[in-house]
Every structure is written in C-alpha cells, then in structure tokens.
Amino acid sequence: MHPVERRRSELRIPSTGITLLEGPGYFGKDGRLLAQHWTSILLSKGHAVHWIDGGHRFDPSRFFPTMRSLNCPIEDGLRRLYIGRGFTLHQLHALIQRIRHEVALTQASMIVVDGMLAMFLDEQIKRFEARSILRHCMASLEEVGRNCPIVLLDGKTMSPLHQQLKHTMRPYVHHRLKGTWGDRKKTTLRLTSSTGVYDVTMKQPSRAIAQQQLNQFTSNVPAEQLAAQAVALPTNQTEREPTILPAQQVDGSDQHRCAEVGHPGVHIPVQEQHVAMD
Description:
Blueprint: E1 18-22, H1 32-44, E2 49-53, H2 64-69, H3 74-78, E3 81-85, H4 89-106, E4 110-114, H5 127-144, E5 150-154, H6 160-169, E6 175-181, E7 188-193, E8 196-201, H7 207-218, H8 223-229, E9 243-249, E10 256-258
Parallel strand pairs: 1-5, 1-6, 2-3, 2-4, 4-5
Antiparallel strand pairs: 6-7, 7-8, 8-9, 9-10
C-alpha cells in the first residue's frame, strides 16, 4: 500500500474577511514584507489597494523590486496604491471610518492597516477609550471585509494593555498568521496558521540600493544624468524576490524542507457594485 502523498499548499492572498498578520519586529515590521509582496502582485494585475499607515513607516521603494519582477510599471502601479497616514489615534480612527466609502469608489481588492495597534498604546489615551475606539474600528473593518480582504499588521505583545487590545480584536479576526524567524540570519520567515506552516524566503535590497531606486523615481534630474551618476542596480536575473515556500516535514521529524514554488496564487474577490452617496 502506497503512502498518502501530502498535497503542496500555497499561501494565498485572503479572499475576504480580516487577516491578522503577527510578524516579528516592532508592531510586525518584518511581517510587513509579506503584505508588500501581496500588494505588489495585485497592483501588477491592475487592481487597487488601500494602505493605511498607523506606524509612521511607509516606504514606497519597498514595492519596487517585486513590481519590477512582475513587469509592472512602477509609476502606473503606484497610481493604484492609495495611502492614508494617521499621526494620532483619532486620525487613524477617521481613516478607518471612511474607508468604506473610498473602497466603493476605487473598487479596491485589498486593504492593509500597518501597525494597527501602535496608536492605541498612547499613554495619553485612557484604556477604556482605546478599547472603545478599537471595537468601533474593527466593526467598520468587518463590514468592509465581507467583500474586500483586510490585512492587519501587528507584532508580539508588548504590555498588558497590548494584550487586552488583542483580546478585543479576536472576535472580529477571521484568519491569523503568526510569523517567527526560521533562522538566525533572518532570511526565512516562518508563518503558522490553522491551515499549515509556510516559509517565506526574504532577501530585500540594501538600504542604499532602495534609496537609489526611490531617488531615481522621484528625482527631476534627466534620466541620462541619473544613469551616469547611479550605482549598478540589481536586475531581475540577480535579485531574488520574496518567495512563498510551503514547509513540509521530512521523515516524520520536526525538521522542515522547503520546495520552492512560484508566486502565491491570487484570488481576486468579486466586488459588489456600489453607488457613491453624496
């Protein structure tokens, strides 16, 4: 009798509902690479994405490598990336409250809230007020999530209040991905969910290269002059992009081997037609 062959699975972009991506780093900073990868794939396919920055760390140059590897013109792709940045908890609350109306206009295929709980830990905000605003935000996101997937980025628990806020979020979260580094060099991000374990191989360009790419995109200097001054940038043949790898057990042991697969499958949700209200 032949052993049952384990089917290879892929870490797909969520189709609906709220997905909590808990990555290592400050408020899930390192797990944000996966959300950027998903965003770049959607942008390359002509879909719009809303990105709400609650951690004051948005950097457009982080999208460039994956977009180039997918043959997506950077300027064209960034036009479909709608950025909202809240510098206080109440500004973040306002951005989340109006996202329903914005999605009705843009027909976006995904919403990302980066550093979801960072603003809620402000010492000037009372705990009762923070939990009340969070429930209001999650209820609004849950309504939008019926037709558009939402990805929330957060990290490890930092304080008792942080733990309470995560407990408040739990009833609204449909999927949960918990990320840890799989090696000391921090090149493999291991994500654990109810459906399995996945390895994501990360290799981002250095800060100097990323800054050079951003300068080339935003500078008013003619392209010929920039090319003469620029350092050699990696091409698609030499630059490795984040790759989704399904983790599989070897001989029943706890060790994992990874078989490389292509880009994660993309499921584009069927959006309902909304009519903008005055």
